[in-house]
Specification:
Length: about 260
Amino acid sequence: MSAPVLETRGLRKSFKGFTAVDGVDLAVQSGHIHALIGPNGAGKTTLFNLLTRFIEPSAGEIHFNGEPVSNLPAKAVARRGMVRSFQISAVFGGLSVLDNVRLALQRKLGVSFHFWRSARVLDRLNEEALTLLDQVGLATLADEAAGALPYGRKRALELATTLAMDPVLMLLDEPTQGMGYEDVERVTSLIKTVSAGRTVLMVEHNMKVVASIADTLTVLQRGRVIASGDYHQVSRNEEVTRAYLGGGRQGGAAA
């Protein structure tokens, strides 16, 4: 097996005596969809924040593409290709769907923060932006206001803006949270489609989603890894059953 694209060794984070992440060893293989699951308070979002350098680790190491990134600022890690989404939808509601993606693409022009320039400078990005929107099924809605999109479509737009950053590793935090059945099915299918040739690490509460698309699962409880493997291995682990599946309850359990 090749070296993992993302690896942590003994990663730990404590807050005033409370240990949220406790000695986590994690290995995410290139080209895989890797799901991070566990009950509420298990430390999943804290681990995401550590990986993307939003918070400082108390101990341990983070390696991305074989290089240590534990001491890099968040923006430097993102520039190397580790790009994340968040639990809460984060689109620019007053802009069009197309403009949301163009904004994500414009760093390629070297004008990411030059908002005083004419919007025409971004016209060269239209074709690429429309291609990304087509990948997530939103090309026909390019001129619509992003704020008017249904929730599931907003999450699809977020996938497009994440792809616009040309990620080596996509970190998706609860991508189906708060969705109805049809939106869950749509976004799950999109994740599977856009992950082709990419690597995904996702926190996900819906076990049906995890079972359908994840190659590998890592289960956290109280900040520690208690199991890792494919869905069938993990779902048969007695410690996981006790800690996460509630003694055999299946499908849609909250993480």
